[in-house]
Amino acid sequence: MGKVIVITSGKGGVGKTTTTANIGTALAMLDKKVVMVDTDIGLRNLDVVLGLENRIVYDIVDAVRGNCRLNQALIKDKRFGNMYLLPAAQTKDKTAVTEEQMVELCDKLKDEFDFVIIDCPAGIEHGFRNAIAGAEEAIVVTTPEVSAVRDADRIIGLLEAAEVRSPRLIINRIRTNMVQSGDMMSVDDILSILAVELLGIVPDDDAIIISTNRGEPTVMDDASQPGQAYRNIARRLCGEEVPLMTLTAKKNSFFSRLKSLFSGE
Amino acid sequence: MEQWPDRLTNLPTTMVNRTLRSGQSINSDGNVVVLGDVNPGAEVSAVGHIVVMGALRGVVHAGSTGNENATITALELVPTQLRIATHITRPPDGSNKDKSYRPETARIRDDEVIIEEYNPTK
Fold first, then answer.
1. What CATH number has the domain bearing residue B79?
2. How many CB pairs under 8 A join A and B?
3. How far is CA A124 from CA A127, A128, A166, A172, in A?
4. Could you tell me the CATH number of the domain that includes residue A129?
C-alpha cells in the first residue's frame, strides 16, 4: 500500500511542477514504483517537464470517466520502467473531475504504486480541492518571497482544515548570496511564520530552466546542486535521515577569495 | 459611555488554541486569547480585549463595537494593522521591525493609539 502525497503552493510559478517531476524521478531512481498525477486540467505541464508530451493518448478525465482503463491512461517513462505519469486533460476544465472521483482514483493507484505524487494547480478553488481530496500527506512549496510565503500560509491553513496531516515545507530558489547580504528572506525567517516541518531547501540554479525545457529532470544530473537537493528530499520521504545541504555563496571576486584564504575557510 | 460594561474583563473569553494563518478569522462578542501566532492575512475581531500569546503579525480589532477601553497585547507586536474602537493605526512605513520580542500592549490614550511595554500592574 503506497503513500499519496500532494504537492501544492497556492501561488503559481513557485516550482510545483518542477518539484513534482524531480521528486518523482528521484524516488524512481531509489527503485520505488512511482506515479505522478497532473491535476492541472486545462493547463497541463508535467508531461512537458518530463518529456512525455508526445506519448499521451488518454488522460485523467478519460480514466475517471471510464472512457479507458486506468492502465491505458498511465504513461510509462522513457528512462525508468518503474515511473509513470497520469497526464491532465488539456481540452477540459477543472470541473471535469469531482472530489469523489479523485479519492477513488488515488485509492486504486496506491494499491499498485509505492508513491502517488499529485501535482496540484495554483489557486485554492476546485482544482486545489480535487488535488487534495485523495491525499494523505502534503508538501507545500514556497520561495523566499513575501507573497509566496503568505500564500503558503493560507494553503497550510486549508490543508489543516481538510485534515491532510502535518504538511511539510520545501523552500525553493534560495539565492545564498542574497540571503547573506540580507536582501532575501532566510530559511529561519520563513519557518518562523509558517511553523511547519522543513522537508528540504533547493538552491536557485540556471540549470533548472535548461533541464525543464529539455524535459529532463535535473535530479538525473549528478553534478547539479538542485538535483542533489531533490535527491535528498526523496531519501527523506523514504524515511532516511539526511542533513540539510549547507548552501554557501559562490566566491566570485578576487577579493572575497583572498579574504577566505586568510580566514582559512 | 454608560452603555458599556464597566469592566471588559467580565465579558466571556474565547480561547483560540492554534495559530491563525492567512485567510482565517475569529470574530467574538467578548475577549479573545490566541495561544499561537496571528499571521499576516489573518484577522481577529473582538468586542473586548485581544491577547496573543505569540507573534501578532496580522490585523486585529479590539473594542470592535466602539469601546475605547479595549486593549491589544501580544508577546511580539508586529501587526499589519491595529484597530481599537474606531481608531485605525499601522506601523510607520519603512520601520524595519526592529525585532523587540518584548511583550507590548496597545491602548487608546488621549484619543491616540499608543504602544507601551506590557505591564501587568496597569
1. 2.160.20.70
2. 28
3. 7, 5, 18, 20
4. 3.40.50.300
| Domain assignment present for B93 | yes
pLDDT (mean) for A146-171: 95
Do A154 and B21 count as a contact with CB atoms less than 8 A apart? yes
Q: Is B1 among the domain residues?
A: no
Q: Which residues of B touch A150 (CB under 8 A)?
A: 22, 40-41
Interface test with A, best of B16, B22, B97 (most A CBs within 10 A): B22
Q: How far apart are alpha carbons B23 and B25 in whole angstroms?
A: 7
Specify the pTM.
0.86
C-alpha distances out from residue A75 to A51, A124, A173, A220, A234, Å: 11, 28, 29, 19, 21
**Interchain proximity B19–A195, CB inside 8 Å:** yes
- Interface test with chain B among A11, A150, A153, A158, by most B beta carbons within 10 Å: A153
pLDDT band at B92 (very low <50, low <70, confident <90, very high): confident
How many domains would you assign to chain A? 1
Contact list in B for residue A195 (CB cut-off 8 A) is 19, 37
- The strand pair at B104-109 and B72-77 is best described as antiparallel
The total number of structural domains that make up chain B: 1
